[in-house]
Amino acid sequence: MSSIENYKKAFLIHLEKSIVKTEPENLYAPMHYILGLEGKRIRPILTLMGADLFGVDYKKALHAALAVEVFHNFSLVHDDIMDNAPLRRGKQTVHNKWNTNTAILSGDAMLIIAYQLFENYKPTIFQELAKLFSKTALEVCEGQQLDMDFERRNDVSTDQYLLMIKYKTAVLVGAALQMGAIVAETSAENKKLVYDFGIQLGLAFQLQDDYLDAFGDSSFGKQIGGDILENKKTMLYLKALELSDNELKKELFLLYNNTEENPDKVEKVKKIFVETQAADFVRKEIEKYTQKSLESLEKLDITEDKKLELKKFAIDLMDRKI
After folding, report:
1. Dihedral angle computed from the Cα positions of residues 110, 115, 120 and 123, in that order, rounded to the nearest 10 degrees
2. DSSP state at residue 98
């Protein structure tokens, strides 16, 4: 079993034995439901890896890893309400399965539980974890607000989009790794470098998600073109607009603003993404941020085998097809 599989297995056991309250049922059942949906568990794995990198038993970081995962799922419950999303990981969203009020309250309780989990650490580590967590949680909210603002705007720049995904996605990846480093009580420089690694990896990860939504492998059962059907202004769309001539720009704008159903919409938009070379641009951006993450990794004061493990994780993440 690889170390990644070990981390995941240990985390899932810890999740099962830690989140055990069941009453009132309508508060805790949605929590068990969302946390039980099969996901990649990237963030808690990174927290455990963050401790292991610096020679500390990764199991010491299990409480912090669970805090990261509980917070992440809290944000998904609330995001799904805001987006009126019917599905999450192929299953009913919490507000659809129960109702909106139940989803809001259950999400609120998850945020509180995430904070409580830090109480398992000694005061100095607790303080550092809580400080990082508060900063990150606020940035995730800022990212979500920017995302909602962008839906109503037609003047979003690629730089503004990168800032939005940095706050909405990348900061939690960076914080997940840094929490492991905090538990390991490593140097301030190592904590900073491992956070920087996570930020760049998080940006590459989100851009890869954008790309795969349009150009991923449908044989894995994933719907292709979901973002296009929802008129999401991803990096592909913004770059295609920027690189289009007037005719293509007009066509793309109409495709995204026409309320009538168009069965050819996804293919037409993808054709524009390819024709304008926006698709090539996004692929290069993914490579750029992956490379930047590996540069931070090289500066870390850890053994070569640990660097190799983290490098493999980053590259595997970028080579995924779904």
Report:
1. 180
2. S
